[in-house]
Amino acid sequence: MNLRRVLMLRTQTRIGFACAAVLTAAVIAWQVLGAVAAAAGGTGNDWPQYLQNAGRSGFTSESLLTSSNAASLQAKGGWPVPLANGAVCPSSKDYCSNLIASQPVIATVAGNQLVYAGSWNGDEYAICATTCSVGGQAYISGQVVWSVYAGRSSGCGGPLNSRINGVTGAAAVGTALINGVARDVVYVGAGGDIAFDGSVIPGASSQMLALDALTGALLWSAPLGSASNHYLWSSPLLANGSLYIGIASTDDCPLIPGGVVRLDTGTGSVVNTFTTVPSGCTGASVWGSPAADSAGNIYVATGNNGSCGSSEPYAEAVLKLSASLGVVAHWQVPASQSVSDGDFGNTPTLFTGTVTHTGALRSLLGVANKNGYYYVFDTAKLSSGPVRRLHVARGGSDPELGGGSISPSSWDGFHIFVAGGNTTIGGVSYPGSVREYDPNNLGTPLWQQGLKGGPVLGAVTTDPTLAVASAGAFVNVLNSATGVQAFKDVASGFYGAPSIAHGVLYEGDTAGNLHAWSVNGL
């Protein structure tokens, strides 16, 4: 899959990798409250992990930003914050950047609202959201509290002739008992074969890092595969008292055996591993992030098959796994529906609905594919196949050019919001779009909004009255009831996804600027 990721202490600490380089309110409650419990010192308005919670709803219940005041959004004082670190590019033939593809994560730690974001320059950053006091030092909104060099990986051309990727996945913030002490922890997927000074690290690995949420100090690191052929596009999931992460190749060059790993949050020890291909095979990378339901089941979607071809039943498939990563159910995209380099480069969304007016309420899962279809499954009967297949974009092998969709949907408790690439609405072609669906009457969208800026690569984000989707160089804030645009701003471009927390809309751009918009800039 091509560029699928996305496509999302003032003194810097350098870590070397040479050694270890509802429909019902009750349904929303387990998603939102579960996320709050995982957040470090959560206030209920934090955004503590990718897509906000374990169910990956992409929704916050706070109502500080609304369809009534969104038109007054302005850049918050002190923002955007340029995230640069001076990391050396290995050679003039490499492409290095400060691009921010990770979704910002916001957590309240020791009374400080901190925004965590990773960059392709290899750093993970903690930025003060309002006013902060850390280690006896005062910070104002927009000041970097700490940054940690977490690692960079070379791409298909090798360490001296390729695109250099740093941190792509969003962090997850939670509490863990580490060496007998309760700590607030930032978990981030990182590692790689390129050091801060541009040198190539022999024997490097892709890694999960646990950092102190307040200081950035390294608490533990866990190698998850050799670099640079392994890369963590996936964002970690905090669920079941554990940490889950998808395993993928860098860009199918070379393909590696895909999988999912479950880690102990306090030590980084691997508790369970599920490999998505038979022994000796490659392919079926998990590009997107795992999701978890209230019973602890884990859901992932996988990429294209590899060396064993049709003998890989879990390639380009949707999987339901137990908390210990045993296969509960799976469904594979039929060959007739697959496109060249077909993938689920995506994260499943869990929601509820009746599917039809006369149906019974059931637990559902939705996920889009590069073939342009958004598949909806009954999670209790996942192996039986989708209960609905919604055509949301024209299929294609490259999402950056508008092929299909790698954009995770959002569930606001009543409706599903789905975005993607090239499509036609009312006889007019658009490079991107957002559609709203009623999960009790899936089929025809309640509204659909074409976006001229480009395809939507990052996830859709919602609050009770707004739906936010970035397309090309534009961040689009829509009235979630009507699809009418309430606010729009422009930057260098957007690969990642927006977050909403404490009345502020956050998103990073391709030039390395972390944006924050608030009502009247306050």
What does this molecule look like?
This protein is mostly beta strands and 522 residues long. The chain is built from 1 helix and 39 strands. It has one domain: Methanol Dehydrogenase, Chain A. 3% of the residues lie in helices and 38% in strands. A 5-stranded mixed β-sheet has the order 1-9-6-5-4, with no helix packed on it. The two termini are 41 Å apart.
Give the CATH level 1 class: Mainly Beta
Helix content: under 10%
Which blocks of ≥5 consecutive residues have pLDDT under 50?
1-44
CATH 2nd-level architecture: 8 Propeller
Key attributes of the depicted protein:
mainly beta, Methanol Dehydrogenase, Chain A, five-stranded antiparallel sheet, disordered N terminus
Give a short synopsis of this structure.
Helices cover 3% and strands 38% of the residues. It is mainly β and 522 residues long. It has one domain (13-517): Quinoprotein alcohol dehydrogenase-like superfamily (Methanol Dehydrogenase, Chain A), CATH 2.140.10.
Topology record:
Blueprint: E1 13-14, H1 25-38, E2 73-75, E3 81-82, E4 105-109, E5 112-118, E6 123-128, E7 131-134, E8 137-140, E9 144-149, E10 172-178, E11 181-191, E12 205-212, E13 218-226, E14 230-231, E15 237-239, E16 242-249, E17 259-264, E18 270-275, E19 291-292, E20 298-301, E21 317-321, E22 327-332, E23 349-353, E24 362-368, E25 373-378, E26 388-391, E27 410-411, E28 416-420, E29 423-425, E30 428-430, E31 432-437, E32 447-451, E33 461-462, E34 466-471, E35 474-479, E36 485-490, E37 499-501, E38 504-508, E39 513-519
Parallel strand pairs: 1-9
Antiparallel strand pairs: 2-39, 3-39, 4-5, 5-6, 6-9, 7-8, 10-11, 11-12, 12-13, 14-16, 15-16, 16-17, 17-18, 19-20, 20-21, 21-22, 23-24, 24-25, 25-26, 27-28, 28-31, 29-30, 31-32, 33-34, 34-35, 35-36, 37-38, 38-39
